[in-house]
Amino acid sequence: MVKRKAALLFLAVAATAHAEWTILSTDSEPGRTSVVHRHLVLEDSQSNESATIDLALFSMKSCTLRVIDQPVSPRSDLARAMTQEKCLTGVNGGYFDPSFGPIGLRIINGKTLAPLVRARLITGVLLASPHGVQIVRIGEFSRKQKTTAAIQCGPFLVDGGQRVRGLDDSRPARRTFAAIGTESHAVLGVCSEVSLAELANILATTQLAEDLKIQRAINLDGGSSSAFWFAHESGGAFSISEQKNVRDFVGIVAK
Predict the structure, then answer these.
(1) At CA 12, angle to CA 7 and CA 17, rounded to 5?
(2) 105 near 151, Cβ under 8 Å?
(3) What is the DSSP letter of 102?
(4) Which own/partner pairs from 48-51 qualify as long-range (CB within 8 Å, at least 24 positions apart)?
(5) For residue 4, what is the DSSP state?
(6) Quick one: pLDDT band at residue 18, thresholds 50, 70, 90?
(7) pLDDT at residue 52 is higher than 90
(8) Which positions ≥6 away from 73 have C-beta within 8 Å?
(9) For 6, 43, 100, 188, which has the most beta carbons within 10 A of its beta carbon?
(10) 175-200, pLDDT tens digit by residue?
């Protein structure tokens, strides 16, 4: 009986051991086509560690997603690519090998440039179709659907409104992510150095924007690849630059 009580106590402590993030400050600014940039500063109440998130919130009713490829040198940075393609906001894309070959599915302008692969971490697809912007698991992806843009990435961070368990909690890094919320809202964002498990917890439990409840979120290529760009409504842009060249970008454009 004593061992059983000890085991139950251990499980109860473990269940509450994850960080509890609270928002210390937030700033918002409008972009074009009703896209909104939010800058948030958060703190973990248990460890007093802080994190910053920049996200672009957009409506799938007025915006859609594009994958922008750059197969040959010289390669642009995110800011230049977003400006050239007249995007409203954008982030870096998915994984690539040392020779800049894309790892995982890439569909650009309805054409498949790289095939779907089975791998431990890249378990989902961020895509655009006539149904809007979606995040699907590999097993849910249908080749019959008219997909105009897709990029395979991962791992999943949030599913069904709940943080995905079992994610790595030991390696902090800058993270780029995409998320689908309620009421046809979707998000692209970048977070300062946190683990995958911490980012999943933040996205699932923190009210990052009014009326936004994240249902699904997925990790994009992070670390030195992470970048974020947002066009101001009145001109100019807010930009967090990548630290190295990347193969592709995810941009949001008006329909």
Answers:
(1) 120
(2) yes
(3) B
(4) 49/19, 50/24, 51/21, 51/191, 51/192, 51/193, 51/194, 51/198, 51/202
(5) H
(6) low
(7) yes
(8) none
(9) 188
(10) 999 999 988 999 999 999 999 999 99
Rg of the chain over all Cα atoms, to the nearest angstrom: 18
Q: Within 10 Å of residue 34's Cβ, how many Cβ atoms? A: 15
The string of pLDDT tens digits covering residues 117-141 is 998 899 999 999 998 999 999 999 9
Q: CB within 8 A of 1, min separation 6: which ones?
A: none
Q: What does the DSSP 8-state code read for residue 98?
A: T
Nearest to 194 by CA among 53, 12, 67, 66: 53
What's the chain's length in residues? Answer: 255
**CB-based contacts of 236-245 (< 8 A; 24+ apart in sequence):** 237/79, 237/82, 237/83, 238/29, 238/37, 238/54, 239/78, 239/79, 240/54, 240/190, 241/77, 241/78, 241/79, 242/77, 242/78, 242/92, 245/75, 245/77, 245/100
**Cα 157 versus chain centre, distance:** 9
Cα 252 from Cα 63, distance rounded (Å): 7
Are 216 and 140 in contact, with CB atoms under 8 Å apart? no
Mean pLDDT score of the chain? 92
Across 63-80, average pLDDT = 94
Per-residue pLDDT at 9: 39
Output the pTM of the full model.
Answer: 0.90
